[in-house]
Amino acid sequence: MAAFSEDPPKYAALHWDGKMLRDVLGSDPGTTSETLAVLVSGPPAYPEGKLLGVPLIDSSTGTAQAEASMDLLEAWGLTGVITALVFDTTASNSGVHRGAAKLLEQQLDRKVFYLACRHHILEVLVGTVWENLFGKVKSPENPWFKHFKDVWTDLTTDNPTTLSIRQNG
Q1: 20 to 30 Å CA-CA from 2: which of 40, 79, 98, 103?
Q2: Are 34 and 20 in contact (CB under 8 A)?
Q3: Checking phi first, is residue 73 left (phi over 0); if not, alpha (psi -120 to 50) or beta?
Q4: Superkingdom, according to UniProt (predicted)?
Q5: Minimal CA–CA distance to 8: which of 75, 71, 65, 54?
Q6: What is the DSSP string of the chain?
Q7: Is residue 122's pLDDT more than 70?
Q8: What is the mean pLDDT of residues 130-152?
Q9: Would you list the domain boundaries of the chain?
Q10: Which of 78, 98, 69, 101 is nearest to 88 (CA)?
Q11: Predicted pLDDT of residue 68
């Protein structure tokens, strides 16, 4: 901790992501707990990131995630170098009033860049295209996407072709 704290990046991005994980080391193995991985990245020494901690949090709310992230930033002395926030696009992160990004920006008391995860943005885009072509899916998971995922390794990839969708009429 000392080496990183003595020579932190001049400008850094704060990354965080919460996950429910099974407790394999604690007093009650097999139970699940909400955990939050928090790291910073910034040149020159840490372009790929430095893990600050993986605290257990009471819930996956924006408030809980922002508090845990800020606690780690303060412990590492990094509140002054954060210029960007990197997060997935769940409501708990990106909500305009109680999202973790908004709360962190308020606690940092300055404007920062919001770098929403492109993976999740593409999920929204693909979902919207699907809905426009084939209608709204009523289940939480699209059965066609699940099937596609299940057979992915069996697909032939040596001669790709483009799917043409034509309207009848």
Answers
A1: 103
A2: yes
A3: alpha
A4: Eukaryota
A5: 75
A6: -HHHHHS--SSEEEEEEEEEEE-SSSSSTT-EEEEEEEEEEETTTEEEEEEEE--EES-SSHHHHHHHHHHHHHHTT-TTTEEEEEE---HHHH-TTT-HHHHHHHHHTS--EEEE-HHHHHHHHHHHHHHHHH----SSS-HHHHHHHHHGGGS--SS--PPP-----
A7: no
A8: 83
A9: 2-116, 121-152
A10: 101
A11: 97
pLDDT score of 118: 66
pLDDT of 62: 95
pLDDT of residue 30: 73
Residue 73, token pair as written in the block:
């930033």
Answer whether 62's CB lies under 8 Å from 90's CB: no
* Rg of the Cα atoms in the chain: 20
Residue matched to tokens 């308020």: 106
Nearest residue to 115 via CA among 43, 20, 12, 46: 12
CA distance 51 to 68: 13
pTM of the model: 0.69
State the virtual CA torsion across 20, 24, 26, 27 in degrees, nearest 10.
110
pLDDT at 164 over 70: yes
* Whether residue 167 has pLDDT greater than 80: no
